[in-house]
Amino acid sequence: MKVCVFSSSSNAIDPAYxxxxxxxxxxxxxxxxxxxxxxxxxxxxxxVLKEVVAAGGQTIGILPEKxxxxxxxSEYAQELIISKDMMERKSIMREMSDAFIALPGxxxxxxxxxxxxxxxxxxxxxxxxxxxxxxxxxxxxxxxFERSFEENFAKPSYRELYFVANxxxxxxxxxxxxxxxxxxxxxxxxxxx
Length: 193
Known about the structure:
EC 3.2.2.n1, about 40% helix, alpha/beta, 7-stranded parallel beta sheet
């Protein structure tokens, strides 16, 4: 199984987030899964690459040529694919991965995980999507999701598009037992006031 992990590029985050990333990486490596990620040598991206290799797993990094020009390629990406830009990077990551996990991260991580949720909602794929909610990092995002459901911006059934894990074990267990759901029909009659 190829698991795409979206994560932070920051080197200034709390050690709790680093510890969980290391734990996830060891589980990926021990389960002989292949990691797919952004391929950079910064933040949790580098941590996850390094630790998956240390645990015996395989790694694939996808890095845009602009970032590669800034010498940001990780030496722990056993296979490094250079994309022409960020859009192509995300497309390659989505196409080659069997599942997606979001560790805590910034704007890039949010953009990546929300895009795969949206594409699943629109039935472009039926792959597993997991948030690892270390320290309740994503609680406010989930509150925003709930407001979208409550105020009819999104169907409540869209809660089934993703899974919220408290830790890496829950995330990996979910991936190992995942069965693609019946597609949720996006096209429904728009509710009237």
